């Protein structure tokens, strides 16, 4: 695979502070760090210093905004959009690929207006407007809004890569791409490799977790076929661990890096 890079979420690393976590991830063989959006404004300086000192880039910001983009209450939608834009600006300041965006957890919050629109039809119209707005902000800032599908246990919306691609194609903004999460895909996609090839260059980021949401190499997900598909579409960005860790992180994390390299 051409220059694909292995990253980890910051919270998976042992360490007394942000710098030590960055240092440990570098020691384990990771090439980038994904940070959470919650509380990032207060620790932005520490993250920037740790990234500069270790040479590990910040790859992405994983959500972290309040409100809900698809809430029936316009105030909740406004909070989500405002805070998502703040995170996109921080992503640009950090030189990150982008900010991961999930529009809703659980079931619909908007009414069923049949026969005009049912709840999901209404949500699709609404989310397209919101994604268009956020995509324009991302483009101006110099980063990306990354649409993430989740499995059916976490949302009724955007469960497969094709669902996110549908909105991305409709919006057609240079500031909007999608991300592929192997854990959610293991549940929702009939064939990981085929879904990746169909999504093609819409994919700009990847999350890695095995079938039971622990670190890759401890479950039964077929990473090799998925990585082969990523290679076929020319993916050369970051794949970040988003998972639980089985065993001592000091041993499990470097072992995971080696496992992933063997699959690549």
Number of strands: 8
CATH topology: TIM Barrel
Instruction: Give the second-level CATH assignment, the architecture.
Output: Alpha-Beta Barrel
Helix count from the secondary structure assignment: 9
Give the distance, in angstroms, between the N- and C-terminal Cα atoms: 6 Å
* Estimated helix fraction: 40-55%
Kindly summarize this structure in a few lines.
This protein is of the alpha/beta class and 264 residues long. Helix content is 46%, strand content 15%. Strands 1-2-3-4-5-6-7-8 form an 8-stranded parallel β-barrel, surrounded by 6 helices.
Task: Please give the structural blueprint.
Layout (H helix, E strand, L loop, with lengths): L4 E5 L8 H11 L3 E5 L3 H15 L3 E5 L11 H21 L3 E4 L17 H23 L2 E4 L13 H11 L4 E6 H7 L3 H8 L3 E6 L14 H10 L5 E4 L7 H15 L1
Parallel strand pairs: 1-2, 1-8, 2-3, 3-4, 4-5, 5-6, 6-7, 7-8
Helix pairs in contact: 1-2, 1-9, 3-4, 4-5, 7-8
């Amino acid at each position: 695979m051409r220059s694909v890079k292995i990253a980890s979420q910051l919270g998976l690393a042992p360490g007394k502070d942000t710098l030590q976590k960055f240092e440990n991830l570098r020691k384990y063989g990771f090439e980038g760090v994904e940070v959470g959006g919650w509380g990032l404004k207060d620790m932005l300086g520490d993250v920037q210093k740790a990234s500069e000192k270790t040479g590990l880039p910040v790859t992405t910001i994983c959500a972290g905004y309040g409100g809900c983009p698809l809430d029936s209450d316009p105030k909740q939608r406004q909070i989500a959009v405002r805070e998502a834009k703040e995170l996109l600006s921080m992503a640009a300041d950090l030189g990150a690929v982008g900010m991961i965006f999930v529009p809703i957890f659980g079931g619909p919050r908007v009414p069923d207006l049949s026969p005009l629109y049912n709840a999901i039809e209404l949500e699709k119209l609404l989310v397209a407007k919101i994604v268009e707005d956020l995509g324009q902000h991302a483009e101006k800032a110099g980063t990306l809004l990354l649409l993430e599908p989740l499995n059916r246990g976490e949302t009724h919306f955007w469960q497969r890569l094709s669902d996110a691609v549908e909105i991305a194609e409709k919006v057609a903004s240079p500031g909007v791409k999608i991300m592929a999460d192997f854990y959610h895909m293991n549940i929702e996609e009939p064939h990981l490799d085929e879904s990746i090839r169909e999504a093609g260059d819409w994919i700009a980021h990847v999350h890695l977790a095995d079938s039971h949401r622990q670190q890759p190499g401890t479950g039964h997900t077929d990473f090799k076929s998925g990585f082969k598909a990523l290679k076929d579409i020319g993916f050369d960005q970051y794949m970040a661990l988003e998972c639980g860790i089985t065993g001592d992180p000091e041993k499990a994390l470097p072992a995971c890096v080696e496992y992933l390299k063997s699959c690549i």
